[in-house]
Amino acid sequence: MRKLRWCQKPAPPAATEVYVHENPWNAIGVGAGIGLLLGWIMGRR
């Protein structure tokens, strides 16, 4: 059976996927830092 093009999920960028798999704690730290920064900025309003 053929899948329709609009039903397919886009593939994640290969470089990002490789980096996250090789350095999971760095990726978690960056995500947490961005979340804290956005929370601090939004909390000041």
The number of helices is 2
- Intertermini distance: 53 Å
Helix content: 55-70%
User: What is the N-to-C order of secondary-structure elements (H for helix, E for strand)?
Assistant: HH
Largest sheet geometry: none
Got a strand count?
0
Q: Which residues sit in consecutive blocks of at least 5 with pLDDT less than 50?
A: none
Rg from alpha-carbon coordinates? 17 Å
Portion in strands: under 5%
pLDDT averaged over residues: 81
Explain this structure to me?
The chain has two helices and no strands. α1 (14-22) packs across α2. The protein is an all-alpha fold and 45 residues long. It starts with 13 loop residues before the first helix and ends with a helix. The chain is 64% helix and 0% strand.
List keywords for this structure.
single chain; about 45 residues; mainly alpha; 2 helices; about 65% helix
Helix/strand layout:
Layout: H1 14-22, H2 24-43
Helix pairs in contact: 1-2
Summarize, please.
64% of the residues lie in helices and 0% in strands. By secondary structure, it is mostly helical.
